[in-house]
């Protein structure tokens, strides 16, 4: 397992480099100059502007600029936010836990929904349950997160008045009460993201279980007289989950899109809402850094998926 | 000659598609929506920017079947107009994705070795990029210059279509490459090659037509994804300018009036949902019809 982990980490390096290359290309191709405002500002003498350009290496060849930018990014030197007047990395470290909390718990919830429904509809193929689950899955991934979020707010905050629809980071409560309030305000955002994920996962689980159920070793297990429950949990599920993990990992980038939207709707102070507010405020260093962090998160989650993959399928890990 | 050869296959496909009842119903709904946005503004001649504060935030009524927004503008007219743009963006972005994806997949599939490896590395790289943050980044950096170049409306349209399509071609590329890999070893391709056919002709006349099924299915799903992507951008306030009421933009404006005028958000969001749902069902029906093996 150790060697497998090292190998996966080594594979992650080129993709990180590739992503940084794409980001830098986009930035370099963009018309306009990050120091354009400075140059057109009459209060800044041209020699100061030129000095700044030289200091930040803006007149260097593209290749050198890329190397500078990359090493700064990897050192955690992400620049200075124009708007909030603080270092970009402190800003991001403040915001990251909320994003990870919402994404993480939505993944767990999605798994708890998708696994039983997917397995059960595969076991009872073409039954009423299966048809309803299929319809539900289609509705689930056709409902964009921003609309689900608004529907939830309309239902649970406005009509029923059960849950708050603005996420507050300064809850005026302590002890158990704090946990309860925190839970109440996290329910809707987590559920929105989880439903979106669970819908497509249900279909993956179902078709994967159907594939595996046809295999001979499952027939053998049944012929041995094992109880159906044991066959499903011990024999079918483990193998059926292998392709599901791949598909889930492939969907990971799209999940971050949903997370940005959810954070924006419920005003969660995470890096997604930071991205949107920075775009609206033209705060380029923050925008670049958040995009970079999102790309790194995708790679991180892919790495986790690879580890799960290795755990589910030892043939891969010990090859 | 082509028509006579393909007719039986087409009718067989249609027969199988018809068995998927939800797909057929979805086709009817989607056609109705397309007709409504195409011809609706010719019938419902209320201007989309007619401000009337006496009718502000009204619910549905005979004069305003979908109600009005915060400025008293007629929502039916705005929905019809915005639907044209939302659906057009979806179709155009799908075309971009399918064309780029087919080109990349075909080149990778027909050439072996380093070209194939490089293109697949590029595809995998794009697959691991988070699309929405990058869409936002590209739009942020390129919005202003493009607006100045070709005007605000067309500029935004071109930019949005290009970036949405530019981040969605990977699935098609993989499918096309896989199809090419299996097809290029088939006897009929070998026969054509033995007859001295050039690679380009071989691809366009023999291999590509035979890998059309999966491309069509993936393209259909891409329309739905592109509509969601455009609505997401507009919903975040970073899509089309405020005077162009796409469905996502309507929802963005409606979200601050959720408590007093829920009809506004429900109509805009419902239209997006209905369009995406029917396209997804049509895609599912087409998958059953065009590729019977994959319908697990």
Outline the secondary-structure elements.
The complex is a heterodimer of chains A (319) and B (296).
Chain A: H1 2-29, H2 36-40, H3 46-55, H4 62-74, H5 88-123, H6 128-142, H7 145-159, H8 175-213, H9 216-223, H10 228-266, H11 271-280, H12 284-312, H13 314-317
Helix pairs in contact in A: 1-4, 1-12, 5-6, 5-8, 5-10, 6-8, 7-8, 7-10, 8-10, 9-10, 10-11, 10-12, 11-12
Chain B: H1 2-19, H2 21-43, H3 75-110, H4 114-127, H5 131-150, H6 152-166, H7 170-183, H8 187-194, H9 199-210, H10 212-235, H11 247-254, H12 262-290
Characteristics of this structure?
heterodimer; A: 319 residues; mainly alpha; 13 helices; B: mainly alpha; 12 helices; 75% helix; 0% strand; disordered N terminus
Shape of chain B: elongated
Main beta sheet of chain A: strand number and arrangement?
none
Number of strands of chain A: 0
Strand content of chain B: under 5%
CA-to-CA gap between the ends of chain B?
35 Å
Secondary-structure content class of chain B: mainly alpha
Q: How would you state the average pLDDT of chain B, rounded?
A: 82
Main sheet specs of chain B = none
Q: What is the global morphology of chain A?
A: globular
Radius of gyration of chain A, in angstroms, nearest whole number: 24 Å
Structure description:
The complex is a heterodimer of chains A (319) and B (296). In chain A, 79% of the residues lie in helices and 0% in strands. Chain A is an all-alpha fold and 319 residues long. Chain A is globular. Chain B has 296 residues and is mainly alpha-helical. Chain B has 12 helices and no strands. In chain B, α3 packs across α6, α3 packs parallel to α7 and α7 packs antiparallel against α10. The longest helix of chain B has 36 residues. The N terminus of chain B is likely disordered. The chains are: A mainly alpha (319), B mainly alpha (296). The interface between A and B is large, with 51 and 45 residues.
């Amino acid at each position: 397992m150790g060697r497998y982990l090292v190998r996966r980490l080594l594979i992650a390096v080129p993709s990180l480099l590739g992503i940084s290359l794409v980001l830098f290309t986009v930035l370099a191709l963009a018309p306009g100059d990050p120091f354009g405002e400075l140059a057109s500002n009459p209060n800044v003498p041209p020699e100061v502007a030129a000095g700044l350009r030289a200091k930040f290496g803006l007149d260097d060849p593209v290749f050198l600029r890329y190397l500078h930018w990359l090493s700064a990014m990897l050192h955690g030197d992400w620049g200075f936010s124009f708007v909030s007047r603080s270092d970009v990395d402190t800003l991001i470290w403040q915001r990251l836990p909320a994003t990870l909390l919402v994404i993480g718990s939505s993944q767990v919830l999605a798994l708890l929904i998708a696994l039983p429904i997917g397995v059960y509809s595969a076991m009872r193929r073409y039954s009423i349950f299966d048809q309803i689950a299929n319809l539900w899955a289609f509705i689930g991934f056709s409902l964009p997160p921003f609309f689900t979020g608004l529907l939830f707010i309309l239902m649970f905050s406005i009509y029923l008045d059960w849950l708050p629809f603005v996420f507050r980071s300064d809850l005026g409560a302590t002890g158990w009460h704090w946990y309860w309030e925190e839970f109440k305000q996290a329910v809707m955002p987590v559920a929105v993201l989880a439903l979106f994920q669970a819908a497509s996962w249900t279909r993956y689980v179902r078709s994967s279980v159907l594939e595996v159920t046809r295999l001979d070793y499952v027939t053998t297990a049944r012929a041995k007289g094992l109880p159906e429950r044991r066959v499903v949990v011990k024999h079918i599920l483990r193998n059926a989950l292998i392709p599901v993990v791949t598909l889930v990992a492939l969907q990971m980038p799209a999940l971050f899109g949903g997370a940005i939207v959810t954070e924006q709707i419920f005003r969660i102070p995470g890096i997604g809402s930071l991205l949107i507010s920075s775009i609206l405020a033209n705060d380029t260093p923050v925008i670049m850094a958040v995009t970079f962090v999102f790309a790194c998160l995708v790679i991180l989650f892919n790495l986790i998926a690879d580890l799960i993959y290795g755990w589910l399928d030892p043939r891969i890990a010990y090859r | 000659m082509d028509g006579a050869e393909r007719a039986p296959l087409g009718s067989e496909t249609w027969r199988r598609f018809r068995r998927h009842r939800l797909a057929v119903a979805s086709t009817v709904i989607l056609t109705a929506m397309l007709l409504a946005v195409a011809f609706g503004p010719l019938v419902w001649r209320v201007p989309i920017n007619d401000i009337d504060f006496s009718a502000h935030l009204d619910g549905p009524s005979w004069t305003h079947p979908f109600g009005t927004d915060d400025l008293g503008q007629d929502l039916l007219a705005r929905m019809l107009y915005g639907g044209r743009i939302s659906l057009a963006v979806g179709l155009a972005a799908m075309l971009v994705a399918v064309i780029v994806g087919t080109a990349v997949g075909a080149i990778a599939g027909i050439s072996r070795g380093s070209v194939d490896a490089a293109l697949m590395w590029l595809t995998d790289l794009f697959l691991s990029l988070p699309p929405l943050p990058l869409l936002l980044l590209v739009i942020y950096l390129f919005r202003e210059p493009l607006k100045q170049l070709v005007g605000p409306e067309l500029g935004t349209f071109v930019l949005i279509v290009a970036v949405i399509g530019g981040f969605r071609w990977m699935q098609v590329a993989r499918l096309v490459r896989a199809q090419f890999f299996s097809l290029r070893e088939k006897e009929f391709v070998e026969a054509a090659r033995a007859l001295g056919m050039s690679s380009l002709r071989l691809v366009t006349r023999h291999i590509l037509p035979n890998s059309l099924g999966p491309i069509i299915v993936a393209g259909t799903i891409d329309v739905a994804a592109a509509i969601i992507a455009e609505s997401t951008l507009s919903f975040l306030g970073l899509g089309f300018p405020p005077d162009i009421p796409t469905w996502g933009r309507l929802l963005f404006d409606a979200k601050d009036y959720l408590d007093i005028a829920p009809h506004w958000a429900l109509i805009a969001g419902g239209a997006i949902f209905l369009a995406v749902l029917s396209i997804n069902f049509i895609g599912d029906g087409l998958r059953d019809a065009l590729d019977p093996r994959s319908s697990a």
